[in-house]
Amino acid sequence: MLIVTGTGTGVGKTVVTAAVAALAVARGERVAVLKPVQTGVAPGEPGDLAHVARLVPGITCRELARYPEPLAPATAARRAGMPAVPPAAVAAAGRELAGSHDLVLVEGAGGLLVRMSEDGTLADVAAALDAPVLVVTAAGLGTLNHTVLTVEALRARSLTCAGLVVGAWPAVPDLAAECNLADLPAVTGVALLGALPEGIGELAPAEFAAVARHSLAPEPGLRWHTALL
Fold first, then answer.
1. What domain count does the chain have?
2. Cα(197)–Cα(142) distance, rounded to whole angstroms?
3. pLDDT surpasses 80 at 228
């Protein structure tokens, strides 16, 4: 079980989730991706899981709820007049999937402490499942503060941070991005496990898997070599 969170919205959580799934599939594992809540998507429209399923064919994808407005899950549920998804329900779905899969990836919405329901956040899901949390972060200026805050929030709750991944490495990185490759692990005390090239999510599945293999450590906790960038 692995929880995937971000330092905020738009940092590349979905593509990183797909990349981790692709590496696991290449190792012969049965993989499931659980998206507890999808916001900003109408019924019948493709959401994050459709993107993951296109990039990594053959895996199990499960979504528990979706709300039309692009807001924090608890807020979106309340405004839509629909029930929110509490952390306990997410944990139960994760355990069910774990019974028939080698790896279950749980992709949150927004950041670690965004309210899923009045009952809690993605951090509460990680605690209930006793699962490590992979933190997806941005490449450039401002990412150090956001990343440190997320990692410190994990530590304050006695949760394990599996590592950091830069979700969208720019084709032409600026000075801040280049410095952050060293600074991110230095200021957080956790490993930088990789950086996915910007636009990788538009690739065909086979090419996506190949780029993911060269852009991430083989699995959370193993060393990644920045020389690949």
1. 1
2. 19
3. no
pLDDT tens digit sequence for 75-110: 999 999 999 999 999 999 999 999 999 999 999 998
Task: List, in order, residues 6 or more apart from 30 with CB less than 8 Å away.
Answer: 60, 100, 101, 102, 103
pTM (two decimals): 0.93
Report strand pairing: 103-111 vs 60-67: unpaired
CATH number at residue 144: 3.40.50.300
Cα 74 to the center of its chain, rounded Å: 19
> Which residues are catalytic, by number?
35
Residue 43: pLDDT band by 50, 70, 90 thresholds?
A: confident
Domain that holds residue 174: 2-228
